[in-house]
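Q: Here's a chain of 366 amino acids. Please give me its 3D structure as tokens.
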Amino acid sequence: MGFNCGIVGLPNVGKSTLFNALTATANAQAANFPFCTIEPNVGRVAVPDPRLNQIADLAKSANVIPAQLEFVDIAGLVKGASQGEGLGNQFLANIRETDAIIHVLRCFEDGDITHVEGSVDPIRDAEIIETELMLADLESIEKQITNMEKRARGNDKDAAALLSVAQKVKTVLDAGQPARTADVHEDDKPLLNRLQMITVKPILYVCNVNEEDAATGNEWSKKVADMAKNQGANVVVISAAIEAEIAVMDSNDDKREFLDSLGLDEAGLDKIIKSGFDLLNLQTYFTAGPKECRAWTIHKGWKAPEAAGVIHTDFQKGFIKAEVISFDDYIAANGEQGAKDTGKMRQEGKEYVVKDGDVILFRFNV
């Protein structure tokens, strides 16, 4: 399954620099003027997971295929975007297609890099974008409600159910709150998703700081952390400049030495991926054999047939059973055969909820 995050923010906050570092490409033009990113650049990156190589070594796999994450670098937003200012209409259309939002906030001073608002203030910047997104959602929901009301009057039960959720969303938007704060019952979440509200998407705030603040953050990033906590959102502190340097290093030892010299435990990419998985309620399971060892990404709570369907729809349709070994048991038993010999391989049926790190062989018939 795809994991799709749109990288957004005001112009000149480091979005394209971060995108280039994340994907180790030069597809996005990073330049010191607004709207240097015109078309949304899409990059896919491997999810770093040391468990994958450990499993592959024991399975003697010829190929190792990590899970993939997709990042979309979207044009910078400005005030008035909801009314089409700057590249607003294009921005809003692009962001509606993403699963989650990585909101990059400038938390550094640099006289050589122009700030579109004239000064550094990440809280103000976050509010500018959130306001524009809410205004765009409000305009959209008002149009949808008008249409739903007409259909509901014609005894359209689906429209009536959707209208009830839409009215709750409009209430919070009218109050200046994002759509994600609407009091919608869990059973009605699919209806909420059908409304295609931008502000219902989960947000990860990324504080872009100078190199010297990468390990500890600074006063601006602390304010963002407080804001994120109040919203129930996640926050990561990174230095896009550091990530750009790491991206061009070939040796993992060089990367580790560089990070150590800066007092960093891990690269910003790893932080973003971990927070992104948490943001979208994702987890990983593995398949392993002589030909291939592969990581698969699924939602937490998925049962075995759903997880099998990520590999191929036939696996889900014809699901018989899943032969499961937990990661810890797989390593401790020195691989699949050892797990079988020690009784650590389990036969699981359709109701089994897949756990993070499970090594699975699916049995199916079509």
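Q: Can you summarize the key feature?
A: The radius of gyration is 23 Å.
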